[in-house]
Amino acid sequence: MKTDEKIFLNREPAEPTAGLNSAAIPIWLTGLLAVLLYWSCTFTDTRGGRFSPLVYAPYTSTNQLVELLPKSGDDDFLRHGKMVFNKNCAPCHQDSGSGNPSTFVPPVAGSEIVAAAGPNRLIRILLDGLAGPIKVAGKDYGTAAMPPWRPAMNDYDVAAVLTYIRGSWGNKATPVMPEQVAPIREKDKAHSDPWQWSELEKIPEKD
Fold first, then answer.
1. Is the pTM of this model over 0.70?
2. What are the boundaries of each domain within the chain?
3. 195 half-sphere exposure, CB direction, 13 A CA radius
4. What is the mean pLDDT of each run of 10 residues along the chain (207 residues)?
5. How many CB atoms lie within 10 A of CB 38?
6. What's the CATH code, domain 73-200?
7. What is the DSSP string of 110-172?
């Protein structure tokens, strides 16, 4: 074997070095990818993509935004009616509207009086109270007594709470407006005693 061949065979392999080669990504392609990435991010932010364009930090969903939106007038009316009921009526009629037979308190849930075609009798009961025997949902309440709320509730309060009970616990009666309460309040302002059901039966349910 020649001397040159021995030197070649005994030579250590060269260390790999980094450098440009024919497979390197061209600079123009790198720039194009950067532009496309920027455009896609902008598109997602402005058009939504799979996210809502309405949601920004610190919020994480449209459900959170809905909770923060102003409520409609109808929602405010019903919310007020529920508040009035919970404060003034629920201690006797219960949160469930089921009443309390042991204390002769009739239910407002499933009550034909509550769900009547019109609120004329119901408004009078709330304003001036009720005393004496009454039958509700087929059950007699011989010594039922409800206090008058005329001094404590304005027309809006009365309308809101009656709308609430006429539309809750399965009741599906029409709402009551303050404009329906005002003329009855004025007409019966001299009515000093609680109503008897026998008196209310003579009054039409609606005008």
1. no
2. 27-68, 73-200
3. 24
4. 52 55 66 75 52 54 51 78 96 93 91 96 97 91 88 97 96 96 96 93 93
5. 10
6. 1.10.760.10
7. T-TTTTSSSSHHHHHHHHH-EEEEEEETTEEEEEEEE---TTT--HHHHHHHHHHHHTSTT--
